[in-house]
Amino acid sequence: MSKFIRKDPIFFGAYLVFLLIACWYLLEYSRVDSLIWVNGHNSKGLDLFFKYYTNLANGLVMVILCIILFPINKWYGWMAALTFGLTSLISVFLKQVVFPDMPRPLAVVKDPGLLHLVDGVDVHLTNSFPSGHTITAFSLAVLLTYIVNNRALSKVLLLYAIAIAYSRMYLAQHFLIDATAGSMIGVIFTWVSIAIVEKIRAKKKGKILEEKS
Question: Is the pTM for the entire model greater than 0.85?
Fold first, then answer.
């Protein structure tokens, strides 16, 4: 993990700041209050933007990334595939087994008039924890930050992931706790996936060198 942090300390430092701010809000405000604050700052332009932007972190995005990466570099492809598989299993396990009846905002907020619902968005009622879209967004951000190793791009990727987390609250699909947990799952288990693949790659490289010698 320290190797990843040294590779782009700005990315992980900025993520830590985001995480601390999110945790502070979780301690200071109720899940409904923080949701209504985000959801209440709306406009027609933001409705249109977040309605489509949030789809940039569905599962299909990771599948496409795997398809793109494998021909370029098989090890990067395996990193993406393992990340997608591992985070998907964790998300499904938490949503369906551990917290199967965790209500979403529309099921918790008693007065529907307090929520701003965007036309054309199918708002769910259960399986709130954690936010799968946020998991995918932060997984993608960490993975591409590691692969590309470009600090300017890493900042854009982090903003992309944070905006996805924000969109889940704006669209009344998740609470702040769901998005925060999703970001942590995405970051931690993408690190784990990268470390596993790198360890396997190092062993393969070592065996090849031994055979040549």
Answer: yes
